[in-house]
Amino acid sequence: MRRHEERLAEILERETHLYEDLRGVKDDEARALLVLSSVEIEASTAKQERLVEEAMRLEQERRDIVLRLSAGHGPWDHEPSLREIAPYLSPDIRRRVIQSARALSAVCVDIGKAQISNSGLIRRSIDYLHDFMETLLRRAQARAAVYGPTGTFYSGKEAVPGFVDRKI
Asked: How many domains does the chain have?
């Protein structure tokens, strides 16, 4: 039983560090979004995917251990939480588990806030790029030198529909 308790504390500590790393990646993502760096955004996304995969693995292992630790402490009609099994842990492990669970909860709140902020940045970036492309197309149409399928030259005003496809 002590081995499971130790492993539970280790997993929670590892999860906390992992989510702190994820919070840092979210900060990097925000900086990349502010400068519209697609390379940095892709790198951030790849890091997030790796961290989330590891978090999922640790969470499943943690849930399995919690079920094992709760097995001898009464019939449960639900999956017991850390708070519910904490009284059954040895005092030193209980302190570690409670401390890690609090830290994990706090960092998850921070990540949620960062995600909301980054979603807003993504929305504004998309709006900016959309407006930029519209402006670029309007300017190009105003002075476009395009040719029709027969090779006939058209001014920008005549070439508005589909002018990008015919521009040389």
From this structure: 1
How far apart (Å, rounded) are the C-alpha atoms in residues 101 and 48? Answer: 21
Burial of 22 (0-12, 13-18, 19+ CB in 10 A): buried
Q: Is residue 156 part of a domain?
A: no
Chain centroid to Cα 119, Å, comes to 10
Q: What is the pTM of this model?
A: 0.75
- Tell me, yes or no, whether 66 lies in a domain: yes
Q: Give the whole-angstrom CA distance, residue 116 versus residue 131.
A: 23
Residues 77-119: pLDDT tens digits? 889 999 999 999 999 999 999 999 999 999 999 999 999 999 9
**Residue 13 token pair:** 């500590």
Domain span holding position 29: 2-141
